[in-house]
Write a structure and sequence with these properties.
alpha+beta; Ubiquitin-like (UB roll); 2 domains; seven-stranded mixed β-sheet; three-stranded antiparallel β-sheet; 10 strands; 21% strand; elongated
């Protein structure tokens, strides 16, 4: 699998390695009250629909016959001027897909002293978010730093019909020399319907090129997006020790700032009350 880079603005860095998990504003409690005639059955239907959707995702996309593949490839190539699909003698085919990187949290990459590698090497000239020194398997110390990737960076991948979602994610991370665990990321299919963008997480065994062939080259019907793997539960074991320690530092910083803001608020109230009292009782 080869990766072609679409030119984007230079990468920017951040002064922290915040993962987005430690924001205090995200904490909330929700209480649901329902009757036996309404919400309960609605929740049951919703759960059944989610279960059915999950089973469909696990089964994956239905396989196309050789005749359908050949016909669809001809139709696909007729709609594009370049980067068409090619059918091999064994029935497999190759083509290009574009992946939009929309990551809200920084990624960990090795610090490069000299610019020689495409993509990540450009990061060395930017400000470093943080640096860690970890012992590698060979016993050598490896410097790491974290950066925010540019918003909506687009990568063009040349893959085959046998390439899975898992391999696409691993290929993108390898291209950027990202050291984070691949389980932190997920590939989503984005469709545009009724003026809204709909996202669906792809199973790791899904084949993106097959989806591209079925949907055609129109980006409105289908586009691929790499985002954080939002599973609903934080997989803390997927983070390294320096990352976890950095989260604690960020939490302490947020707590200090919150306490300072509350103290300033009530100090202002106190001053205004004292001024009002002096006006009434000089």
């Amino acid at each position: 699998m080869t990766v072609n880079t679409v030119l984007t603005p230079s990468m920017t860095s951040s002064n922290s390695m915040s993962s987005g998990y430690c924001s205090l504003d995200d904490e909330s409690e929700e209480f649901t009250f329902f009757t036996a005639k309404t919400s309960f059955f609605q929740k049951a239907k919703h759960a059944a629909k989610q279960s059915e959707t999950k089973e469909q995702e696990e089964r994956g996309t239905k396989e196309l016959s050789e005749e359908d593949v050949q016909t669809r490839i001809q139709e696909y190539n007729a709609q594009v001027s370049e980067n068409g699909m090619k059918l091999a003698a064994d029935g497999s085919y190759t083509g290009f897909i574009k992946v939009h990187l929309r990551l809200s949290r920084p990624v960990t990459v090795p610090v490069l002293e000299a610019a020689g590698s495409e993509g990540v090497s450009r990061l060395t000239g930017s400000r470093r978010a943080s640096e860690d020194k970890d012992d590698t398997d060979s016993g050598c110390a490896e410097k790491r730093t974290s950066f925010y990737l540019p918003s909506d960076c687009v990568k063009q991948l040349h893959i085959s019909s046998l390439t899975t979602t898992k391999e696409v994610i691993q290929g993108l991370l390898k291209k950027f020399m990202v050291l984070d665990n691949p389980r932190k990321f997920a590939l989503y299919r984005q469709t545009h319907r009724d003026g809204q963008d709909l996202f669906q997480k792809l199973p790791l065994s899904e084949r993106p090129l097959l989806l591209r062939l079925i949907a055609g080259p129109d980006a409105e019907r289908l586009s691929f997006v790499l985002k954080e793997n939002e599973t609903g539960e934080v997989e803390w074991h997927a983070f390294s020790v320096p990352e976890l320690q950095n989260f604690l530092v960020i939490l302490e910083k947020e707590e200090t700032e919150r306490v300072r803001a509350v103290e300033h608020k009530y100090c202002t109230y106190r001053q205004k009350l004292e001024q009002a009292l002096k006006k009434h009782d000089p």
